[in-house]
Every structure is written in C-alpha cells, then in structure tokens.
Amino acid sequence: MHRLLHLARAIDAVINPLGRLLSWLVLLTIAVGFYNVMARYIGRFVGLQLASNRLIELQWYLFSMTFLLSFPYVLLRGANVRVDFLEADWSAQRKAMVGFWGTTLLLIPFCLLGLWVTVNPVLQSWGLLPDGTWGQWEMSPDANGLPRAPIKSMVLVAFTLLLAQGISQAIKYWAVWCGYLQGAALPGVETELPPVE
User: Fold this and answer.
1) What's the pLDDT tens digit per position in 1-37?
2) What is the distance between the alpha carbons of residues 41 and 29, in angstroms, rounded to a whole number?
3) Quick one: the chain helix, strand, coil %, rounded to 5?
C-alpha cells in the first residue's frame, strides 16, 4: 500500500501545478478575446482588417484547453459537483468505499472509453491516412486558421490526465476505506480551491 500511496502522491504532484497553468490560460484567453473585439471595432473605424481568424481560433483553443485540463485538477481538489444529501451522515470509511467503487466502476472506464474513441480521430487529424501512411494534418476550414491536430490532441491529454487522477483518487479512497489513512482528509471531499499566486 505504501508504494500505491507514493504513486498517488506522484500523480497529485503532476496534476497540482495545473491550477497555476489554468489561471494563466484564463488570463491569456481574456487578453486574446479583448484584443479580438478591439481589433474588430477599431479596424472597422479606421478601415483596416486588424482582426484575424488565427487569433479568433486561438481564443477558442485557449478556452478549450482551459476547459479540458480543468477536470483532473477539479477532481484532485474535490471541487467537482456532488449531491451529498445521502452521504452527509456517512462515516469516512463508507464515503471512501462509495468513492472507490464510483471511481473504479464509472470514472476510470469512462476515461478508458474516451481514450479509445478519440485516438483514431486525433491520429487522422495529425495526417494518418487509412492506408497507414501519413499525409497533411487537418487545417482549419477558415482562411489563415490554425491547424486542428494540436487542439484535438488536448482531448487525449485531458482523458489521460483525468484517468491518472482517477487512479490516484481510487488509491486514496482504498487507503481510507481499509484504514491505512486513519484521520486523513478524505480524497475528493468538497473543498474551497486555494487562490493561485
């Protein structure tokens, strides 16, 4: 169990810095969006084309990355939405048992299914042809747009990180359920997210 808890701590150490990255991605998304709006209106006023499809697509790429990468961090911090009127009076071990089985039977298979379903579309986006050779990667249908492969790859990254965090949570739930972590904070319990410095 000691090795499994060490693995869970290692996974948590990888996921935890996502909070800082996500806060910067949100700020960057806002800055790009602000520029896009200002460029559109100022461009109309002065008669120049200041906005570009590349920046508009960058804005939704950044938003998509923020959305996709937030799931494992939210799971780590226990800030996910819960309906806990049933478990309000349960013991920590019973909550851990339900958390373990929910994570093991629902979250982990969902992540594996998500990975399985998205691998081929992502590879095709990178240019994998049906005959196994490689061609050009998928580009935006808009003029001067960004390639689609990098953002589609973020779906795989998100499912992989969520799977890893799900495994970490399952290990911690198991440890609480079996009594290895007496008096420890229950993983996945709703907490207030700390401010990102």
Assistant:
1) 889 999 999 999 999 999 889 999 999 999 999 999 9
2) 19
3) 65, 0, 30
**Residue 175: closest CA among 102, 81, 88, 92:** 92
Rounded Cα–Cα distance for residues 18 and 196 (Å):
10
CB 61 within 8 A of CB 68: no
Which pLDDT score is estimated for 193? 47
The 8-class DSSP code of residue 148 comes to: S
Look at residues 111, 12, 120, 9 and name the one whose alpha carbon lies nearest to residue 68.
111
Tokens representing 9 are 């701590």
Rounded CA separation 88/93 (Å): 13
What whole-number distance in Å separates Cα of residue 61 and Cα of residue 95? 37
pLDDT tens, residue by residue, 109-118? 999 999 999 9
Sequence-distant contacts of 56-60: CB under 8 A, at least 24 apart: 57/140, 57/142, 57/145, 57/146, 58/32, 58/146, 59/29, 59/32, 59/33
Report pTM: 0.85
Q: How many Cβ atoms sit within 10 Å of the Cβ of residue 107?
A: 19
**What whole-number distance in Å separates Cα of residue 182 and Cα of residue 160?**
30
Beta-ladder partners of 128: 134
For residue 104, what is the DSSP state?
A: I
